[in-house]
From TrEMBL:
Coiled coil: none annotated. Keywords: Hydrolase. This is Amidohydrolase. The keyword Hydrolase applies. InterPro entries: Amidohydro_3, Metal-dep_hydrolase_composite, Metal_Hydrolase. GO terms for molecular function: hydrolase activity, acting on carbon-nitrogen (but not peptide) bonds. Residues 44-487 form the Amidohydrolase domain. Signal peptide: none annotated.
């Protein structure tokens, strides 16, 4: 990110303001800002023509390979039942949808509200001849037939489903990074840049250090990347000497992030670890309240190991029991960190985020996708579900993300969902959990429009403060600059 030519942006307007300003960018930083006509221009002068300007946007939670590979899988996101899923899969196979390593892969089903559950018999009847693996929309379970199970060396019960630990291990083993062309990563990064994105937090379970170093070297350079590590590679990165915040690549785009630990499951799979049983579950059943994916004792061991090596932590906790236990662990160890998702939180736990210096990394579009599932499976508790407003009022620092491919890698969608709590023709869901626009924007950025700050900038065709819910969701982005260079330009 060196040897950049200076650049002047002329006639821009800060969000919510009428007067125009000029901005000079030099050496990857904002070098000067002032009312239009008062700043000596340098380098190329780009007329912004009164468009609005703000700090570049970040997505605080992505699975980039899964995001890239999604386009090559059968799209199941619009399906509403087991029969609908299987009809879509059968149709795709009959129409010659390409196989991936000899298997038909699908993505996006959500079975939390199906009237008829998934079954091995049904998927066998629909597709008996080709190995089929269908990935749930939340990435926490998979549905497959016997041909796929035999090929992958797993045993199936009568549902044909694998959930949580066994599925996640298998899914990680299906990593097709090597089979994906570099162009797929480049196109996905460029598409993100076209929505104003300058950086992502990568939570793919992979050798993110080596993979992102090579991707940037080979031209995938439209984004900054904070690369996480999972427990199975923790000792490897400790031995290599990596610490949170270390620069990984030669261009200054990739930094080493945090240890990712998954403590519980998900709402859709009814495996999020909760204090109360799920409706219809026998309270005496060991999984009636969800599941503890990583024992709390092991979580504490991992956190200590990471902390002592200079590595921060980001811990997945969705259910209210999981959030309590993770908060307790951070409190006991006296270390800061990030809680990923924080979807269901006890009232007495909201204040603890700020008290303990913990960031709540949340995905607002999940609230829109899962509101009906939450109303059913967390009945009576949804006033504290996806409770971004409660977290903010309690003083917690928020970061917004998508969990792509679970939701679109587009911060404007996250911002709209966080501030409106509705989409399409539906009423606002728990309006008290909306957050102000300035809070949502701050939670989607890592810099400000000030001299000395990184020249990571988004230029929009509308003022966010004058935009309604739907106008935020499809905010026109005229340009994105990363370290003072255009990664997207339509002006």
């Amino acid at each position: 990110m060196t040897d950049l030519s200076p650049l002047t942006l002329r006639g821009a307007r800060r969000y919510g303001e009428a007067e125009t300003i000029d901005i000079v960018l030099r050496d990857g930083l904002i070098a000067a800002i002032g009312p239009s006509g008062t700043v000596e221009p340098e380098g190329e002068v780009v007329d912004v023509s009164g468009r609005w300007i703000g700090p570049g946007l970040w997505d605080a939670h992505v699975h980039f390979t899964q995001h890239v590979i999604r386009r090559s899988r059968v799209d199941l996101t619009a399906t509403t039942s087991a029969a609908d899923v299987l009809a879509t899969v059968r149709r795709a196979l009959d129409e010659g949808h390409p196989l991936l390593n000899g298997m038909l892969m699908g993505y996006g089903f959500r079975d939390g509200l199906w009237g008829e559950p998934a079954s091995l018999a049904a998927i066998e009847a629909a597709v008996p001849e080709v190995p089929v693996v269908l990935v749930s929309g939340d990435l926490h379970c998979g549905w497959m037939n016997r041909a796929a199970a035999a090929r992958l060396g797993v045993d199936l019960d009568e549902t044909g489903l694998l959930r949580e630990g066994p599925w996640i291990e298998l899914h990680h083993g299906l990593d097709q990074t090597d089979a994906l062309p570099l162009s797929g990563y480049r196109e996905a990064a460029d598409a993100a840049a076209s929505r104003g994105v300058v950086g992502v937090v990568e939570f793919e379970s992979a050798d993110n250090v080596s993979l992102w170093r090579s991707r940037v070297r080979d031209g995938v350079n439209a984004l900054r990347v904070e690369a996480a590590v999972w427990p199975d590679r923790l000792e490897e990165v400790i031995a290599a000497g990596w610490r949170t915040g270390d620069q990984i690549d030669d261009q200054g785009l990739v930094t080493f992030g945090r240890l990712k630990v998954v403590v519980d499951g998900s709402l859709n799979t009814r495996t999020a670890w909760c204090w109360d049983p799920y409706p219809g579950m026998d309270p005496s059943h060991p999984l009636s309240c969800g599941m503890e994916s990583v024992p709390v004792s092991e979580l504490r061991r991992l956190l200590v190991r990471a902390r002592d090596a200079g590595i921060g932590a980001a811990v997945h906790a969705i259910g209210d029991r999981a959030n309590t236990e993770v908060l307790d662990a951070f409190a006991e160890l006296g270390m800061p960190g990030v809680i990923e998702h924080a979807q269901l939180v006890r009232e007495e736990d909201f204040a603890r985020f700020a008290e303990l210096g913990l960031v709540a990394s949340v995905q607002p579009e999940h609230a829109m996708d899962d509101r009906d599932i939450a109303d059913h499976h967390w009945a009576g508790r949804t006033g504290r579900a996806f409770a971004f407003g409660s977290l903010h009022r309690a003083g917690a620092e928020l970061r917004l993300g998508s969990d792509a491919p679970v939701a679109p890698l587009d911060p404007w969608i996250s911002i709209a969902a966080a501030t409106a709590r509705s989409r399409d023709d539906r009423d606002v869901w728990h309006p008290e959990q909306r957050v102000p626009l300035d809070v949502a924007l701050a939670a989607s950025t890592r810099s400000t429009l000030e001299v000395g700050q990184p020249a990571d900038i988004v230029i929009t065709g509308r003022d966010p403060y004058a935009s309604d819910r739907d106008e935020l969701r499809d905010m026109p982005v005229a340009a994105t600059l990363l370290g003072g260079r255009f990664t997207h330009r339509d002006i």
